[in-house]
Write a structure and sequence with these properties.
Layout: E1 2-8, H1 14-20, E2 29-37, H2 40-50, E3 54-56, H3 59-65, E4 73-76, H4 99-109, E5 113-119, H5 126-137, E6 140-148, E7 159-167, E8 184-185, E9 198-199, H6 203-207, H7 235-243, H8 250-256, H9 263-266, H10 311-317, H11 330-339, H12 343-358
Parallel strand pairs: 1-2, 1-4, 2-3, 4-5, 8-9
Antiparallel strand pairs: 5-7, 6-7
Helix pairs in contact: 1-12
Length: about 375
């Protein structure tokens, strides 16, 4: 059966990548009927990978002008900056309200299921309470959890809020879980032998085969090396990189080369240990954000080489295939990578939801005649 999907705030299409990858499944597959984002470069990326059913427009403007297509599932993450702890001006941020058009489209599309992804801090906001109330009013049973993407095979300890709603009148069993079980675990966690879980995927597994990057620009060469380029750091930056040992951070820079350390760090002897830090080969990465190419923003130095990680390395850590096509300039692509839902997690989520539908535990309306997969 083909299950129709709308992807809101789709970005580059990390969520769609996971859902639409299941074309070879004989019981079900997913079909994109519409996607929207106001990021022009991201929408071009989406089209390059998934076809022309993506629109670059403000979601509220589109909702006021167009008829919402019918769908079985609505997925997407309203922009998270309004909820993020990194946003110092959270109160009054209009991006906190974009869950409203999201839920309007869930209602208008008559979707049986919605899946919302956001920063983990979402659960601590009054807006989350409003989202739950809105879903309840529309007749949805909702389950939610803070998910660590490393628990699903992503080489990154990225923690996100995942909210899944299913219409109560389309549920055969209210006791089942809407979220897939983890497939991986932290290596030093003592879990029951009954749980057949793999160890977390480490950075070396994701990027260890890549040769040293060449150049400072996107190159017209086959992947993976088209996005495997470096920055053009100053001599001062190069000296700072060399002063940070394996596994080190800004405190090691301060200890080893105080004369190279910015005054703002010298005057702040405590704080987070990720700034200007090196990734470890044998651990997952920290969360890849939109400015991963700036080591002053986090633990984004290569484990051994004296440089920040490249766009290709960040994309791999996010679990994007080397064959995934990115459009736009360097900053555009970095933003798309950092804002994405890791495709590997999205695929496991899609497999779980598709299986529940195929087994009849979630029913779809008879009016939406689902085509059997070939």
């Amino acid at each position: 059966m083909k299950i129709k999907v709308i992807d809101l705030f789709c970005g580059a299409g990390g969520m769609s990548s996971g859902f639409l990858s299941l074309k070879k499944n004989k019981l079900f597959s997913f079909e994109s009927v519409f996607a929207i984002d106001n990021d022009k470069a991201a929408v071009e990326t989406y089209k390059a990978n998934f076809g022309e059913k993506a629109l670059c427009q403000d979601i509220e403007e589109w909702l006021n002008q167009e008829q919402v297509p019918s769908a079985d599932i609505v997925v997407g993450g309203p922009p998270c900056q309004g909820f993020s702890l990194l946003n110092k001006n959270r109160v009054g941020d209009e991006r906190r309200e974009l869950w409203k058009p999201y839920m309007d489209i869930v209602r208008a599309s008559d979707a049986s299921i919605f899946i919302m992804e956001n920063v983990a801090n979402l659960f601590k906001t009054k807006e989350f309470e409003e989202i739950l109330e809105s879903a309840k009013t529309l007749g949805f049973e909702v389950q939610y959890s803070q998910v660590n993407m490393a628990d699903y095979g992503v080489a990154q300890t990225r923690k996100r809020a995942i909210v899944v709603g299913v219409r109560k009148n389309r549920l055969k069993n209210t006791n089942m879980g809407f979220l897939p079980d983890p497939t991986h675990r932290k290596p030093d966690v003592n879990l029951s032998l009954e749980l057949d879980l793999k160890d977390w995927v480490d950075v070396k597994s994701a990027i260890g085969d890549l040769k040293e990057p060449l150049g400072t620009e996107i190159r017209e060469v086959p992947p993976p090396y088209n996005l495997h380029f470096t920055r053009n750091p100053t001599e001062l930056s190069k000296k700072r990189y060399r002063a940070v040992p394996v596994g080190g951070n800004r405190f090691d820079l301060q200890k080893n080369a105080p004369e190279l350390t910015p005054n703002c760090w010298l005057n702040k002897p405590s704080g987070g240990t990720d700034l200007f830090g090196r990734l470890w080969w044998d651990r997952p990465s920290v969360t890849i954000r939109t400015e991963f190419f700036k080591p002053e923003k986090g633990r984004y130095l290569h484990p051994e080489q004296h440089r920040p990680i490249t766009h290709r390395e960040a994309a791999r850590i996010m679990s994007f295939s080397d064959q995934f096509i990115f459009k736009g300039n360097k900053t555009d692509i970095a933003r798309q990578i950092g804002n994405a839902v890791p495709p590997i997690f999205a695929e496991k989520l899609a497999t779980h939801i598709g299986t529940l539908i195929a087994e009849g535990l979630i029913t779809l309306p008879d009016s939406k005649t689902l085509e059997r997969c070939a």
